[in-house]
Amino acid sequence: MQTIKIAETSAKSLLKELASVFETDYTENYGEAYIEFSNEHGDGIISGINFPNGVGIFRFETKLESDTCLDFHGDMVHPFKFIYVIEGRLDHRFRDEDIVHHIEKDQSVIIGANRGSGNKIMFPGGFKVSAVVLDVDRKKFVEQLTFPLEDMDDIYHRIFADTNAMRTLYHHTQYSLKMSHLIQELRDFTTPGLERISYHGAKALELLTYMLMLYREDSKPEDHQNVLRPKDLEKVKQVIFQIDKNISELGNINSLAQSVEITETKLQEGFQILFNCTVHEYIQRKRMETAMLLLLKTNKTISEIVYEIGLNSRSHFSKIFKEKYGMTPTAVRNKEKV
Fold first, then answer.
1. pLDDT band for position 336 (50/70/90)?
2. Torsional sign, CA 187, 189, 193, 196
3. Mean predicted lDDT score pLDDT of the chain
């Protein structure tokens, strides 16, 4: 395994060291460090930037030829690392421990090395790895808080009060679908310059927020957790199937959630992520689309159509149909006859 010794954790120091090892150019734009290579070492795009609030964001898109370890060492207070694996796998080991942690696709970790240790992050050779890493400088982050550290919730105080890295922290979980959505937004944003840096700074804080929310959620019993995760997506899809195939006999939103053993909060979040609307709005949209199809393709009366789409008021149906399509159901039917 190729081991790259990293004595300093700033984006500029790290990227300059990697540029030297991977024999490529180091560039910098608006404070963001960047390298790109395609040679005997493999293929890769790596970037990173540190913000004044103590939060740094790094992006790795690599396929290295051989197993490679980034060995973060040195007698220093190592930043907290929040790692999100989008594709492939990363391995992690504290320098003073033998246990290797495998971080797979759709998983994330919070890592806090104690001062006498450090982090070894390993990229398996021959495999594509896509990951986002947040570095949080403990002291800088605490100094920029607008409230006393003692006012912080206990669950977070145990993390951020350890500004001298006296304890080791390792928390492994599945990241939420909201986090997955945010990371995709981050990857899709290609505007350069000041807009890019501002966007990355905002997204770094947003991702940090959702990671901390997951940390809190993981401390609760599973039936009290409301953050939507990849494993919950299949249940949301089951509800979508129920709505699409049984529009005439749907229960209320709570009963739909209970039918697949998911909380209503998770169900609503799933629809917001997938369709940018609430469950109720999706049902109404599906009812109107079904009604339009029945008006155009069948000879069913409007009263029959109202019943078939699960409504019981013809006047209410006509009202919401006109709001969506700009004409009444009767007008659509008469226009077809002409």
1. low
2. negative
3. 90
Q: Which residue has the tokens 């989008």?
A: 86
The single residue listed with the structure tokens 């959620």 is: 217
Query: Where would I find the H helices in 62-146?
Result: 138-143
CA distances from 16 to 2, 9, 35, 56 (A): 17, 11, 8, 16
Average pLDDT of span 174-200: 86
Q: What is the pLDDT of residues 257-294, one digit of tens each?
A: 999 888 888 899 888 888 888 999 999 999 999 999 99
Q: What is the CA radius of gyration of the chain?
A: 26
Q: Are 140 and 54 in contact (CB under 8 A)?
A: yes
The CA distance from 338 to 326, in Å, is 18
CA separation (Å) from 157 to 142, 162, 216, 310, 329? Answer: 10, 8, 12, 50, 59
- Cβ-Cβ contacts under 8 Å for 167 (sequence gap 6 or more): 112, 114
> What is the rounded distance in angstroms from the CA atom of residue 328 to the CA atom of residue 331?
5
Q: What is the DSSP letter of 101?
A: E
Q: Tell me which residue of 15, 9, 51, 35 sits closest to 198, measured CA to CA.
A: 51
Strands (E), the chain: 2-6, 26-29, 32-39, 42-50, 55-64, 68-72, 80-87, 89-94, 101-104, 107-112, 119-123, 128-136, 169-174
Between CA 266 and CA 85 the distance in angstroms is 22
DSSP code for 290: H
Is the Cβ–Cβ distance between 137 and 164 less than 8 Å?
A: no
Helix (H, G, I), strand (E, B) or coil at 202: helix
Q: Looking at this protein, which amino acid is placed at residue 283?
A: I
Q: Name the β-bridge partners of 46.
A: 35, 60
CA distance 132 to 69: 17
Rounded-to-integer distance, Cα 111 and Cα 108, Å: 10
CA of residue 35 relative to chain centroid, distance: 24
| Residues 242, 259 contacting (CB under 8 angstroms) | yes
DSSP 3-state of 141: helix
